[in-house]
Every structure is written in structure tokens, then in C-alpha cells.
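Aim 2 progress update. The chain analyzed this quarter is reproduced below.
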Amino acid sequence: MRLVRGMMLTAALATFALPACKSDDKKATPETEAPTENPTPVKPEPVTPDPPATEAAIPTQEDFEELALIEITADNLEAELEKLEEELE
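Predicted C-alpha cells:
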């Protein structure tokens, strides 16, 4: 009976002692040590906002009217109308 208790005590101590030894080894490795040199801080580039849209940048009805007068003729009117109807579907 005492032998069994002694073996159980030894097993319990070994179970708790081994992880403690393993964690000490990790602390001593140079991979986990903090670097001794202070790296130079990297400053982020300033963010510039997009310029506000001007009236010239926003297309208006007049812009499309000029283009339509050039591209649409009496000869291709039906074909252009069909293209527009297909785009809307």
C-alpha cells in the first residue's frame, strides 16, 4: 500500500515539475528575448482626403445631349433605341 502511494506521489510530482522545467527553458532561449536595440519608429504617411467634386466633374444632361446629337442619327435611331432598352433590362 505504501509502495503504491509512493509511486502515485512520485508520478504526481513529476507531472507538475516537468512543465515548470520546460517553461524555464523557453525563457532562457535567445529567440524569445526582447531586442536590445530600439528600432526607429515608423511614421505613417499622412492621409490626404479626396478633393471635393466640382460641378465640372459631375456629368449633366447637357453633356449627354451633345454626345447623343453626334452619335445618334436618323439611320441608326432604331438600333440605338434597342441598345438602350437592353441596358435597362
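The helical segments are 2-28, 61-71, 77-88. The two ends are 89 Å apart (CA to CA). These observations will guide the mutagenesis experiments scheduled for the next reporting period.
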